Amino acid sequence: MVAQHPPFTSAVPSDPFYRCLAGKRGDIFWRTHSKSKPDGDKFFSEEFKDLIECMLKLEPVQRPSITDVIQHPWMQGPTPSREEVVSEFQRRNVEVKAQMESEK
User: Fold this and answer.
1) Angle at 85 between CA 6 and CA 100, to 5 degrees
2) In this structure, is residue 69 part of a structural domain?
3) Distance between CA 42 and CA 37 in Å, rounded?
4) What's the average model confidence in pLDDT over 79-96?
5) Kindly report the CA angle at 67 between 6 and 28, in degrees rounded to 5?
6) In a domain, 51, yes or no
7) Which residue from 1, 59, 62, 98 lies 20 to 30 Å from 104 (Cα-Cα)?
8) How many domains does the chain divide into?
């Protein structure tokens, strides 16, 4: 949701993004995912990258529990108000409708 697209197409070794994470090459994964983002490599915070890499570990036993996820430093950061969330979804809805209309 933060990136506005999935981290990889499929969790299989042939998927290049999945292969980066499974092969412990998060640096390549994040560099590639940051290219088109505002602020480039500063778009994703180090805490966010750490949480996502932990959650997407290849071995399920190495992944954090939901309690660990909730207690992760990134999860302790600021959260938007209900009004901010509604406003953002309305803005995105307008963008999606405009894109769909332009594709007709």
Assistant:
1) 55
2) yes
3) 9
4) 95
5) 35
6) yes
7) 1
8) 1
Residue numbers of the domain that contains 56: 16-78
Question: What is the separation of C-alpha 24 from the centre of its chain, rounded to a whole number of angstroms?
Answer: 17
21, 11 Cβ separation under 8 angstroms: no
22 in a structural domain: yes
pTM equals 0.73
**Chain-centre distance for alpha carbon 83:** 22
- Which spans in the chain are helix H? 16-22, 26-34, 46-55, 66-71, 82-103
d(Cα 46, Cα 13) in Å, to the nearest integer? 25
Residue 103 maps to a domain: no
15 within 8 A of 23, measured Cβ to Cβ: no
C-alpha to C-alpha distance for 20 and 49, rounded to whole angstroms: 13
Q: What is the DSSP letter of 64?
A: P
- What residue type is assigned to position 64 of the chain? P
Query: Model confidence over 13-62: pLDDT tens digits?
Result: 889 999 998 888 999 999 999 988 888 889 999 999 999 999 999 889 99
Q: By the 8 A CB rule, do 8 and 17 touch?
A: yes
